[in-house]
Write a structure and sequence with these properties.
Belongs to the peptidase M50B family. This is Zinc metalloprotease. It is a multi-pass membrane protein. The chain is an alpha+beta fold and 362 residues long. 48% of the residues lie in helices and 21% in strands. Helix 1 (2-29) packs across helix 6 (272-284). It is elongated. It starts with a helix and ends with a helix.
Length: 362
Amino acid sequence: MLITLLIFFVILLVLVLSHEAGHFFSARAFGINVEEFGFGLPPRMFGIKSKKGILYSFNWLPFGGFVKITGEEGGETSDPTNFSAKPAWIRATVLASGIAMNLLLAYIVFSIITGLGTYEAIDDKDAATYPDAKVTIIQVLQNSPASEAALMEGDQILNVVSEANSLTPKNIEEVQKFIANHKGKELLLMIKRNGNEFTKIITPRKNPPEGEGPMGVALALLHIKKAQWYLTPIEGAKLTWSATAATAEGFWGLIKSAFEKEDRKDLQIAGPVGIFNLTASARSMGITTLLTFLALLSINLAIINILPIPGLDGGRLFFVIIEAIRGKRISMQASSWIHGVGLAILIILMLAITFHDLSKIF
């Protein structure tokens, strides 16, 4: 638990620092004054002021971070260090730089992953071509024999024993047939998890719910695919593109579902507590999965921030675009009020999601 908590905060710190560093360094590069670099959202826990007058603060609400830039709320001024005094293209660049940094972080992480090796699913018919391939659990259904036996995603099935019968599986079909022939009987599974081997006792159901199977798991035949070091930048770019496209498609589906009338209980939205639980699951599946989790979170953060939501980068960027089109600034009062209300709604939403996460646990 303690190690998972530490990993969770490291992931959160990396995500926040990378995003806000984009705003921070781009603002500094354009000569814009930065007042505060905050980790988390106020109220403030403590802060340290640098010699250049920048306050580096740690705040109580762990829902992200912020960079406070002079003049970000608008207004007319001739001060060259003021954000609002800069032309629209500079302001847009500073606002978009956090999103760019999150995508860059995902690309760097994915490039590292391709060098370490990524899991690739293969068909049973190709098992002989990949002798390192292992039958792996990729999903454990709730209230199933697998769940009761504490099996986890990422567990590799090395051996299955039932009385005098034994199987060292080379493909998924072998496992499915063996289990089907031993429904209702106690099985001894040899499992490999994070390099450690151990046994689990499980009794497959004779009459499982439709679509769940006797054990209540989904299986895949996985092998590790490694890219040559000189190809990792290219493979990393491919992974980043496909992950970004898939995440954007998922967000679009989520937005469309908000306007649909049918019940959407299947939607999965996680707050800090939910992400902590996902961190524990990713950690149990090894460093590659944990790094993949970090990269996907970074892409999620980038896409959320590019949406035209008041209080987020996308909302402020939308205002700059409107100003550029109409050739007139939006008043400081209106900008401050709209983004303030947007931020308040986002905090309330995050608190509600956190409560939802806690309710599922307790």
